[in-house]
Design brief:
Radius of gyration: 17 Å
Helix content: 25-40%
Mean pLDDT: 85
Number of helices: 8
Distance between the termini: 34 Å
Low-confidence stretches: 1-11, 17-22, 217-232
Number of strands: 7
Strand order of the largest sheet: 3-2-1-4-5-7-6
Oligomer: single chain
Structural class: alpha/beta
Order of helices and strands: HHHEHEHEEHEHHEE
Largest sheet: 7 strands, mixed
Strand content: 15-25%
Length: 232
């Protein structure tokens, strides 16, 4: 029952604030699990930043994998989502053991101060909806906030720019082309891994980037898996 309530709230916010929401449904659990994959396995305590948590589908997956000493900052620009997420963190059992380790920040990610703060940034922003200059600014912010050796995970819907281009005007095609060029540059330079998630609406590609590697960069490609997730 709860999932339908969550979807309804997400859909209403999407209609009113499509540029910053960018999807019609919350992320599937398969997509959420892929986005938080760097949290799996033994590791020291991490500082984590989630950008654009929305209704908290990915936040729940982060909470399930948080350890003693971890800290999570969830930065969200939409006031309704902030209110919803604060209530969920207070009330839901999945957050019970780590709610004191979570801070929800009502702001744009570009407004966050500091440098080299986070071991992991999980981005849910709909980058294909923004102007190219805003996408460059967001990636520059991620670069500033990540520690050396830290990882950025984000996703984009499969072939979204290619599918939209024939149905939009020339100005919008130019915007999509410029956004695609910015994202390709970062992906070609910094991607260390990718996963394609077929069980999501719509299907998505999760990308893992490392801006300041502590070891030489090596690209890791993945192979298809019957579960709908590409596995290493």
């Amino acid at each position: 029952m709860y999932i339908w309530v969550e979807c309804g709230k997400f859909f209403r916010e999407c209609r009113q604030h499509f540029q910053t929401t960018g999807a019609i449904l919350p992320s599937s659990r398969f997509l959420a699990r892929a986005l938080v994959r760097p949290l799996h396995g033994p590791r020291p305590a991490w500082r984590i930043l989630e950008v654009g948590p929305g209704t908290g589908a990915v936040t729940r997956e982060i909470a399930r994998r948080m350890q003693v000493g971890d800290r999570l900052d969830a930065v969200e620009i939409n006031a309704h989502f902030v209110e919803l997420l604060e209530r969920r963190v207070r009330q839901e059992r999945v957050f019970a053991r780590c709610r004191d380790q979570i801070e929800i920040i009502h702001a744009a990610v570009q407004e966050l101060p500091g440098e080299a703060i986070y071991d992991l940034i999980v981005s849910g922003l709909p980058l294909n909806n923004f102007p190219a200059h805003a996408v460059r600014e967001i990636f520059a912010t991620y670069n500033r906030l990540l520690k050396p050796g830290g990882t950025l995970t984000f996703y984009e819907y499969t072939l979204v720019r290619q599918l939209k281009s024939p149905f939009v005007d020339r100005r919008e095609r130019r915007r999509l082309f410029r956004v695609g060029r910015v994202m390709r540059n970062y992906i070609q330079e910094y991607q260390i891994r990718r996963e394609r998630i077929f069980i999501n609406v719509p299907p998505a590609t999760v990308r893992y980037l490392r801006f300041k590697p502590t070891t030489p960069r090596s690209a890791i490609e993945t192979e298809a898996h019957p579960s709908g997730v590409l596995q290493v």
